[in-house]
Write a structure and sequence with these properties.
- This protein has about 260 residues and is mostly beta strands.
- The protein has two domains: about 45-125, SH3 type barrels (Roll), CATH 2.30.30; about 130-255, Jelly Rolls (Sandwich), CATH 2.60.120.
- Helix content is about 15%, strand content about 40%.
- It has helices at about 1-30, 240-250, and strands at about 45-50, 60, 65-70, 80-85, 90-95, 100-105, 115, 125, 130-135, 135-140, 145-150, 155, 165-170, 185-195, 200-210, 215-220, 225-235.
- The strands form four sheets. It has a seven-stranded antiparallel β-sheet, covered by helices on one side. Strands 1, 2, 5, 6, 7 and 8 form a six-stranded antiparallel β-sheet that branches. A two-stranded antiparallel ribbon has the order 3-4.
């Protein structure tokens, strides 16, 4: 009798646990968790990626006029504030909205939180440092590069690294006083128009060097100074101007501003 009683007790316990499990499953099915996103109803979100909040998962503001932080991942969403150039923003979420990629970010102080558009003209996914030439210009460059200030100023990637790149910036009162390009023997491949140097439209000339690698050159005359921005890239099968274009977006040259 005792054995039968214990058997019945075990069956009752198993049935009770099974009932609780089914109840929980039903609750999850009938009452699914809803999420409240900051995007407007008309925006179709095609991909959402949660990213860990780690120091390496950040962007730095490129543009001298700063980047807009918005309440939602939409260019028409309310602007919360503007974050200044060279500020670091930690990423908590990456969201694909149509053809655009938006980042949910927080400032290092923790006082600003919102969405910024992930554009290579406004933010960059690597740490930057700032170089300032008094009464001339300023620009950002990768923090691990070596800076030699002056005229010309040079910023160079670590020797032996995969990047094999360098940036030279030189100014002169007259364009004819600037070095001829390419600065090393080579042949012109092509030109690209509609680049921007602090509001001034400029074009980029790409050269293939005889020694291997590529050279990218932007030269222009502003109100009082002529500028040469020359980027060299180590041996590779194809030229890649993406980093140079981002660095060009970071240049602050008030002499080149419209109306200067």
């Amino acid at each position: 009798m005792v054995c039968h009683s214990r058997t019945r007790v075990r069956r009752i316990i198993r049935l009770a646990l099974l009932g609780l499990g089914l109840g929980a499953l039903a609750g999850c099915t009938l009452n699914p968790t809803t999420s409240n996103t900051a995007s407007a109803p008309r925006v179709q979100v095609t991909q959402v990626t949660k990213t860990p909040n780690t120091p390496s998962n950040a962007v730095w503001v490129l543009t001298p006029i700063g980047v807009n932080v918005r309440a939602g991942p939409d260019i028409t969403s309310a602007k919360l504030t503007v974050i200044a150039q060279d500020a670091r923003l930690d990423i908590s979420e990456t969201r694909k909205v149509g053809a655009e990629t938006w980042l949910h970010v927080k400032s290092q102080s923790g006082q600003v939180e919102g969405w910024v558009l992930d554009s290579p003209e406004t933010v960059i996914h690597r740490e930057m440092a700032q170089h300032v030439e008094q009464n001339a210009y300023s620009n950002l460059f990768p923090a691990e590069w070596q800076l030699n200030s002056g005229n010309p100023a040079t910023m160079t990637a670590p020797a032996g690294g995969a990047e094999q790149a360098s940036l030279l910036i030189q100014t002169a009162p007259d364009p004819n006083q600037l070095p001829a390009t390419p600065t090393h023997p080579g042949q012109e491949l092509r030109q690209e128009a509609n680049l921007d140097l602090y509001g001034k439209s400029v074009f980029l000339t790409i050269y293939k060097l005889n020694s291997g690698g590529y050279e990218f050159s932007v030269r222009t005359k502003c109100k009082t100074l002529a500028y040469l921005l020359d980027y060299q890239q180590g041996a590779r099968t194809q030229p890649d101007a993406s980093l140079f274009k981002s660095l060009l977006s970071s240049a602050y040259a008030p002499d080149c501003a419209p109306g200067a």
